[in-house]
């Protein structure tokens, strides 16, 4: 599953999420899934249809997303990185669409709408210029960046990975994966030289 899809699972009711994981990830049949969940095969099939429909609503259509090699996608990623590195909320406004969403795993809360996203990031995340440094990469066919945050001693430490859904009209979704191990998985060091 794509990282964006995994993050979107939090928006499904528990039963639909369980059905989707059992069927799509673990490859159980509808009958086996019904037995595990103590329900009927018809209920599993119905739950699967509803789960797929909801995920389709949440996920930008692939034809709308820019390839990470598209200069427009790279410009959006560069703008997002610069906004964080400079702690500049106004720069975020320039790269996010008005209907942008912001998700961060493993947290349950998410933001919808550019104003809400920028307010939250500006108030609680951006900090001061130099607190963040990011290195551009790609993840699941989308522009992404490995993220480093400056600790109390001034060292830039791995913080996770951010993935952007870049469209011709701006970034429609930002997903931050707060997992330091992902930085190493992407081939980057735990500590970054300033």
From TrEMBL:
UniProt domain RNA polymerase sigma factor 70 region 4 type: residue ranges: 3-55
Keyword presence, ATP-binding: no
CDD domains: Sigma70_r4
UniProt-listed Gene3D superfamilies: 3.10.450.50, Winged helix-like DNA-binding domain superfamily/Winged helix DNA-binding domain
Keywords: Sigma factor, Transcription, Transcription regulation
Family: Belongs to the sigma-70 factor family. ECF subfamily.
Protein name: RNA polymerase sigma factor 70 region 4 type 2 domain-containing protein
Organism: Cryptosporangium minutisporangium
């Amino acid at each position: 599953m794509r990282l964006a899809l995994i993050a979107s699972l939090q928006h499904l009711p528990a039963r639909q999420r369980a059905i989707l994981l059992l069927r799509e990830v673990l490859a159980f049949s509808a009958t086996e899934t019904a037995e595990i969940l103590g329900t009927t095969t018809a209920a599993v099939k119905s739950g699967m249809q509803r789960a797929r429909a909801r995920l389709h609503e949440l996920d930008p259509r692939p034809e709308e997303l820019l390839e990470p090699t598209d200069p427009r996608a790279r410009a959006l990623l560069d703008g997002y990185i610069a906004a964080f590195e400079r702690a500049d909320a106004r720069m975020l406004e320039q790269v996010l669409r008005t209907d942008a969403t912001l998700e961060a795993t493993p947290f349950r809360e998410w933001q919808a709408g550019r104003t809400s996203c920028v307010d939250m990031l500006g108030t609680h995340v951006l900090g001061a210029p130099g607190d963040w440094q990011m290195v551009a990469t790609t993840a699941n066919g989308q522009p992404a960046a490995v993220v480093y945050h400056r600790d109390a001693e001034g060292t830039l430490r791995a913080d996770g990975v951010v993935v952007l859904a870049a469209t011709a009209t701006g970034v429609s979704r930002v997903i931050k994966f707060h997992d330091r191990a992902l930085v190493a998985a992407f081939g980057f060091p735990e500590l970054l030289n300033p």
